[in-house]
Write a structure and sequence with these properties.
five-stranded parallel β-sheet, 19 strands, 30% helix, binds zinc ion
């Protein structure tokens, strides 16, 4: 049966749409967009007061399956994604076994088709086993549907190795996504190196450990002509390097997480909250301000979560022994609405670029547009609803949110993936 979504404020800058219109969904596609649509026999949903935008995509997510299902699996991770308003996620390859060949890509795809609550776009490792020693089965993975290459979790340490991956792999037309961390320089760094690491007597993770590899990877992208995407950028100077690379014509894009925008090292205190232990670490106020500015002015291309679920017992260990990462899928949209959109710093249209249009463009996915004929991947949110993070638990199997207890305004209410509803009035379908 056709579904008529009425009275939502539709924002889609790709078709210059910003106003109240009705959207008719027929099958897996948008059948019609227009004012005061009336369709015989269609089911009607009134979305007055809500926004409807092209489905959001989070291009940096750890679903943990195969291998670490104790932390999260494809069912629970995509459930969290649907709850947060996403219609698709790009899964990182640091699973066990590592996603470094077509068979594992095929496994992730088939599990997602079976139990997923959103689309899952698998990425594949650049090097076998993420060891940085030999190239992965790049062509095999692309043939099976991998959308990008990355050794996320760590960087490719050897510049020559990165060059060989790019020189060979660029023929597949996919983006190379870099987790920038010079392991020799960072060592066992726990939090940003500076006053706070000194005060808390924790080993420092210096900004230069990230910035060196950002600069190096941009140089190698220039050398090889490959498409480079810098993951979870966290420092002001790192952003300056990306800005200069873009100005010089290098094919480089970058992403930022809500935690690097809205949390800083100053949120770490004597409680040693391990949910705030992330990689790269929370930086200074000046860094977070620069990242927020970059998101607004276009230097940052995409907002991602780096959703990194861990078990409670892992995060309950001493700070040095707890693993890096926090969950983010269920809070990302709400944080961006609360901190940037509702405060007037950024338009809903800019948010759509950052969370729907650019991720698809960088990953080479078909765009979703709010117009007749487009696939009906849509996100609906209520910009006024107020809620407290963690109060009603999480859809994710994990609970390691760095934003627990924070009151946010704005939340996804309805999500459609290929015309099929995955979230209805805030409840998983
Ligand atoms: Zn990473």
């Amino acid at each position: 049966m056709a579904l008529l979504l009425k009275n939502a404020h539709v924002v889609d800058p790709s078709v210059e749409l910003d106003g109240v219109v009705d959207v008719l969904i027929g099958g897996d596609k948008i059948a019609e967009v227009g004012e005061n649509l009336a369709v015989e026999g269609a089911e009607v949903r009134d979305l007055s007061g809500k926004y409807l935008v092209p489905g959001l995509v989070d291009m940096h997510v750890h679903l943990r399956e195969p291998g670490y299902e104790v932390k999260e699996d494809i069912e629970s991770g995509t459930r969290a994604a649907a709850k947060g308003g996403f219609t698709g996620v790009c899964a990182m390859p640091n699973t066990d076994p590592v996603t470094d060949n077509g068979t594992v890509v095929e496994f992730v795809k088939s599990r997602a088709a079976e139990v997923g609550h959103c689309r899952v776009y698998p990425s594949g490792a650049m090097t076998r086993g993420l060891k940085g020693e030999a190239m992965s089965e790049m062509g095999d993975m692309v043939a099976h549907g991998a959308v990008a290459f990355t050794d996320d979790g760590r960087g490719v340490q050897g510049a020559g190795m990165l060059r060989r991956c790019m020189d060979y792999g660029k023929m597949f037309g996919k983006v190379f996504m870099s987790h920038c961390q010079d392991e020799d320089l960072v060592g066992h760094g726990q939090i940003n190196e500076g006053k706070v690491s000194t005060r808390l007597a924790l080993e420092g993770w210096p900004a230069a450990g990230e910035e060196l590899q950002i600069a190096r990877d941009i140089e190698i992208a220039k050398l090889t002509g490959a498409k480079l995407h810098i993951q979870h950028i966290s420092t002001a100077h790192g952003l300056e390097i990306v800005r200069a690379g873009k100005a010089a014509g290098v094919r480089v894009t970058c992403e930022a997480t809500p935690h690097h925008m809205f949390l800083t090292e100053n949120d770490l205190d004597e409680t040693y909250n391990t949910s705030l232990k992330v990689n790269p670490p929370l930086r200074t106020d000046e860094d977070a301000e620069a990242i927020r500015q970059g998101v607004i002015d276009g230097t940052v291309d995409v907002i991602v979560t780096d959703h990194a679920p861990h078990t409670p017992w892992e995060k309950a260990r001493e700070f040095e022994l707890a693993p890096f990462g926090m969950i983010g899928l269920e809070t990302s949209l709400s944080l961006v609405l609360t901190e940037l959109v509702n405060t007037g710093k950024m338009s809903v249209g800019r948010m759509v670029e950052l969370m729907a249009i650019k991720p698809r463009e960088i990953l080479g996915l078909d765009q979703v547009q709010v117009k007749a004929g487009s696939v009906a991947d849509l996100t609906v949110f209520d910009p006024t609803v107020t809620w407290t993070v963690g109060e009603d638990g999480y859809e994710s199997r994990a609970e390691n949110s760095g934003f627990a207890g924070r009151t946010l305004t704005g939340r996804a209410t309805d999500v459609f993936v290929g015309g099929k509803q995955t979230l209805a009035d805030g409840c998983i379908c």
